[in-house]
Amino acid sequence: MARHAIGVDFGGTKVLAAVVDVETGKVVGTGKKKTSAKDGPDDLMKRIFATCDGAMADARVGIEEIEGIGVGIAGQVDAGRGVLIGTANLSRSVVDLPMAERIVDKYGVPAHIRNDVQIAAVGELSFGAGKGIDNFVCIFVGTGIGGAIIQHGELISGHTGNAGELGHTTVDVEGRICGCGGRGHLESYASRTAITAAILGELRRGHRSIFSELLPKVDPAAPSGSAIRSGILRKAVDAGDEVALQIVTSAGTYLGYALASIVNFQNPQRIILGGGVIEAVKLLFETAEIVTRRESFPSAGKQVEIVRAALGDNSGVVGAAVIAAAS
Fold first, then answer.
1. Helical ranges in the chain per DSSP H
2. Domains defined along the chain, listed by start
3. CA distance 8 to 70
4. Are 273 and 308 in contact (CB under 8 A)?
5. What CA–CA distances, in Å, run from 196 to 52, 223, 243, 283?
6. Which one of 62, 133, 194, 311 has the largest count of C-beta atoms within 10 Å of its C-beta?
7. CA-CA-CA-CA torsion sign (156, 317, 115, 97)
8. ∠ Cα 306 195 181 (to 5°)
């Protein structure tokens, strides 16, 4: 008989829940909703409950068949208390929300909360591009940039659970202010939010671009971190749009320098890159790989394997389900 758990991946623009067969990694049912950075505690929990219910309905299983529920969320997490303790891409009002406790109260099964990229790394370790690899780093590029470290086949969470936060390492000491309040962080230069802001800035300055056709309803003067979806960005790059090519190449360069620091400092066997922008925009991945190898020590840079996540959008939900079932 199959063993089922629910995995939830809660990000800056969407929440995805899935019923997962934790023996095979197969997703047997899903539920999905959009999220907003303005969502307060009640809205956040309602979206989690709705997607979990939708996933169970899609899989045609009841809660009595679910071993546990795991949630990966964008930000810094206190796994022991089951709460978010810091976030750059969600409302500050959800910090210290007792998510795990509320899930247990609702469904009566064990619940576990982790950082979203940490659980994605567990998914890739169990059934994806990290399977059979003892030492690797996962970096996901989306609304923000997150990371996770696997050593000797185990997730390294760090002293306070924040290990792997590559998006909040400094790439320009006099640079832009990050959503977390820090200055010059990678997330401010290479995330989809940063890419969107740079493109809208070029449109405001009057540069001609295919984005004017692809985004006819977008006001360039309105700040937005999600107006330009990954698929639209891919279309602009594939069309050879000068604005898109320049900004994506710049983002890939910043990402590559940060990855080279990981290679030199940690010397992983493999780097797994994932997230919507990485999946959609080949140029971003290719630029990051070239710069990583160029800026790393030759002995490490030549040998490190740089690959895309194998599970796509399901990395997070699969990893969350694995953690829920194993705990």
1. 41-59, 99-107, 116-127, 187-190, 192-204, 211-214, 230-238, 242-266, 276-280, 282-295, 298-303, 315-326
2. 4-125+314-326 (3.30.420.40), 131-309 (3.30.420.40)
3. 6
4. yes
5. 31, 9, 11, 16
6. 194
7. negative
8. 95
DSSP string, 20-75: EETTTTEEEEEEEEE--TT--HHHHHHHHHHHHHHHHHHHT--GGGEEEEEEEESS
Is residue 251 helix, strand or coil? Answer: helix
Q: Are 314 and 17 in contact (CB under 8 A)?
A: no
Residue 90 phi, psi (nearest 5)? -125, 170
CB 278 within 8 A of CB 285: yes
Helix (H, G, I), strand (E, B) or coil at 110: coil
The pTM (predicted TM-score) of the whole model is 0.92
Full pLDDT tens readout for the chain, 327 residues: 679 999 999 988 889 999 999 999 999 999 999 988 788 999 999 999 999 999 999 999 999 999 999 999 988 999 999 999 988 778 889 998 999 999 999 999 999 999 999 999 999 999 999 999 999 999 999 989 999 999 999 999 999 888 999 999 999 999 999 988 999 999 999 999 999 999 999 988 988 899 888 876 555 555 554 568 889 999 999 999 999 999 999 999 999 999 999 999 999 999 999 999 999 999 999 999 999 999 999 999 999 999 999 999 999 999 999 999 997
Cα–Cα distance, 73 to 70 (Å, whole number):
10
d(CA 324, CA 302): 37
CA–CA distance, 327 with 321 (Å, rounded to integer): 10
Q: Identity (one letter) of the amino acid at 65? A: E
Q: Is 82 helix (H, G, I), strand (E, B) or coil?
A: coil
- Please provide the DSSP assignment of 187-224 as one string: HHHHSHHHHHHHHHHHHHTT---THHHH-TT--TTS--
